[in-house]
Amino acid sequence: MIHILSLPLFVTSSICLLMSFFFALLYYRLTFHHKEPVKYYFLFALSALISAIFFGAFGVLVNSGENLFALSISNRLTIIGAMFTLVTSLHFYLAFYSYTAPYFLKWCYVICGIFSVLTAVPSPYFLDNAFYATSKYYTGLKYGFLFEVWGIWILVLGSYCIYILVRVFARQRSRLEKSSTVLLLLMANTLWLITGISDTLTGIEVVDLPPLTWLGSFIVTSTIAWILVLHIDGLYKDRRKLNDKLMHDHLTQALSRSFLEVKLNEAIFRIKNSDINRLVVCIFDVDNFKNINDNYGHSSGDVLLKNITEIVKRHLSPSDCVARLGGDEFVILFSDYHSALKASDIVEQIRQTIASTVFKAKAHTFSTTCSFGIVNILSEGDLAEDPAHDILSTADEALYTAKSLGKNTIKNIGYHD
Ligand SMILES: Nc1nc2c(ncn2[C@@H]2O[C@H](COP(=O)(O)OP(=O)(O)OP(=O)(O)O)[C@@H](O)[C@H]2O)c(=O)[nH]1
């Protein structure tokens, strides 16, 4: 019959094992597929694996009763696990919070390695096999004087973790950054240290429970996991922001010139690869925009550009889009077959709406008009060698004609008119 107290330990161990697998996979994908090695994912995978062994060993310990062999093995594993959980956590904090790892960090691993060998081999100076009864459980080990040195070593390591976290906490506070996760880590590490000391001093006699450090280790491991999840969220948020910046013109929120090229090339690809061929591209430009800037100020000109974009968007269906080429020049793309059929009517409605709108900016009210050049692509045969560039320059020529015809007008041409 499995001891009820060991169940949370086995559950925690399984969760740690899963987390370790997940982060090892993430590290592998980032390093080998995206050439973007993120060291702390590897550290966390390692730390979670050690924690899984650590918690699993605790579970075995609780169930081992008077089986000296099981007690000895599980207790030795928990000691090794506890030690490496601390040193990998320390390494993680240094890497994640951008502190240069001190030279002695690699020696910490070496010292932990030496203590692990000492832990693995029964000896009267460090850990001997013996029935050493606590109030209820048996540790299966008898501690020698060198074990006290190990206790001091763990104390130093744990204190250094806390020192680094205090520095991170102070740095985040001074920059007015959110510091709740660091605070949680700080508490978990302090708890770990207190429970670790009490376990060491009392031979796990404080309560009739498995060693108390498992609780601290669990909080440390889960908080680190939580920080990494937040970190992944942050990376995606940054990427979305960057995409948004690349896709949209910051003033008008129309599509950017570069994203227009992507959309136009997609539309051209569809024309080449589908039986239903129709694409309408319209370039338009505000008439005498320079006068609006000169008469009402540059910021009024900005407001006008934003309002015109909104008017255009209101007339378009979701499959169409408007992009700003620069200055007061815009492009509308009708790439859906049905909206392309109605493109001329829609552009006429846009022209009329703009011409009849009274725009307001600051204390000024004014009217304006736009000129439009439309080009219709009806078949694959209309596409030149460099179709995107060719379509835009043909639409630009149509716009130029519309301007020369007296402005506030539309020049609609077939591709090879
Ligand atoms: N307010 C504002 N003005 C801009 C911006 N970018 C360019 N401009 C101005 O837009 C004006 C563009 O004028 P043009 O298109 O060359 O000429 P126009 O006065 O519109 O005359 P036509 O095009 O012939 O009707 C210039 O005065 C630029 O300084 C911007 O982001 N905001």
Automatic annotation (TrEMBL):
Q: Does the UniProt entry include the keyword Transit peptide? A: no
User: Which InterPro entries does the UniProt record give?
Assistant: Diguanylate_Cyclase (IPR050469), GGDEF_dom (IPR000160), Nucleotide_cyclase (IPR029787), Rev_trsase/Diguanyl_cyclase (IPR043128)
Task: List residues of the GGDEF domain.
Answer: 277-415
Enumerate the PROSITE patterns for this protein: GGDEF (PS50887)
Needs which cofactor? Answer: Mg(2+)
Q: Known EC number(s)?
A: 2.7.7.65
Q: Which SMART domains match?
A: GGDEF (SM00267)
User: Which portions of this protein are annotated as coiled-coil regions?
Assistant: none
Q: Keywords of this protein's UniProt record, alphabetized?
A: Membrane, Transmembrane, Transmembrane helix
Q: Which residues cross the membrane?
A: 6-28, 40-61, 73-95, 107-127, 147-170, 182-202, 214-236
Catalysed reactions, semicolon-separated = 2 GTP = 3',3'-c-di-GMP + 2 diphosphate
**One Pfam family this sequence matches:** GGDEF
Q: Name one GO molecular function term.
A: diguanylate cyclase activity
PANTHER family reported in the protein's UniProt record: DIGUANYLATE CYCLASE DGCM-RELATED, REGULATORY COMPONENTS OF SENSORY TRANSDUCTION SYSTEM
Protein name per the record:
diguanylate cyclase
Organism, as annotated: Alteromonas portus
